[in-house]
């Protein structure tokens, strides 16, 4: 019937906010999210980073309708076509890049925006080129919210797209200016640009249920902004002191950047985003098996570089000990791409701790609400050597609507 209201998929709360918006955009199913921090007396409704994410979705799609209630505790979202960067369509596009500015009160790392954006990019009609700038861009890992750094995203997440027939060679992440979290964990002042030129009709079916293999090399990036460059060497030396006992091929690059200048309300510029951190990625002898770890100094300080290096090294060892072929950082990305792929059954080997995470279980429930099939879970056939599980995911064949029309 004409004029009939769309059938909304209903959620409550702010959990998995970005992933639900992404699933809605990919499947074309509208969503209604209510009771967003409705019990908070001081900050009810959408947070600044969630509002900024909705503006980003509006910039890279055509025809999306977003309605937010006066209090900000309820939103309805009717998705449009994922256009990417198209001249004359994106109102915030400058040249071949969509400019997106993050507010100064943003507390989330830039990967909060990059992870869902990279999930949408393969299904866009044109290339997805987005530059993040403004006083709220945090390129490091975040101490309070647990977001990974741009280095872990570039080395531990983006290479995995190649297993779905999405060439990583056509995906470029440029870190034009680095920054850590500012005072109180707010703001940063960095600049990051993602150029995603790998658009596909349908992602290939993934079969990553082999043995994880042995760790053959470890790579990483030690970064610091606005502090002495010697902090990098101190973090690297501490990390190598732990890792060189186990793996001989360990190489960690050092990256130093001056603290970015950000203007305040009075028009005065000051340096924020001062800090340091370490990102480590372990690569296995089996193709496509990557593990990552991120540790950053808290904004209030009080931590020496040696502690950051040692903690990051031990955190990486803990992630490897969890087993499986992917860590909890990249598991949601792989499981979502498997569900959006061709109508075949893909398989992914996960450690029990990764599968038992609230985020992974919630993703399975959300995918089912959006029409995907339930997952099949069984023990691996390794004669009792590990406790890993194999997750079977059937693709929905949603694919790239924009490419189909074109």
What labels describe this entry?
RNA 3'-terminal phosphate cyclase/enolpyruvate transferase, 406 residues, alpha+beta, 26% strand, RNA3'_term_phos_cyc, RPTC_insert, RNA endonuclease activity, transferase, 26% helix, five-stranded mixed β-sheet, globular
Tell me the layout of helices and strands.
Blueprint: E1 9-12, H1 17-27, E2 31-34, H2 48-60, E3 61-62, E4 65-68, E5 75-78, E6 81-82, E7 93-94, E8 97-101, H3 111-120, E9 128-133, H4 150-157, E10 171-177, E11 191-196, E12 207-208, E13 215-225, H5 230-243, E14 250-257, E15 261-263, E16 269-271, E17 275-284, E18 290-296, H6 305-321, H7 331-340, E19 345-350, H8 352-355, H9 358-369, E20 376-379, E21 389-394, H10 401-405
Give a description of the structure.
This protein is an alpha+beta fold and 406 residues long. Helix content is 26%, strand content 26%. The chain has ten helices and 21 strands. The protein has helices at residues 17-27, 48-60, 111-120, 150-157, 230-243, 305-321, 331-340, 352-355, 358-369, 401-405, and strands at 9-12, 31-34, 61-62, 65-68, 75-78, 81-82, 93-94, 97-101, 128-133, 171-177, 191-196, 207-208, 215-225, 250-257, 261-263, 269-271, 275-284, 290-296, 345-350, 376-379, 389-394. The strands form six sheets. The protein has a five-stranded mixed sheet, with helices on one face. It has a four-stranded mixed sheet with strand order 1-2-5-4, covered by helices on one side. β4 and β5 (75-78) form a beta hairpin. The longest helix is centred in the last third of the chain and has 17 residues, at 305-321.
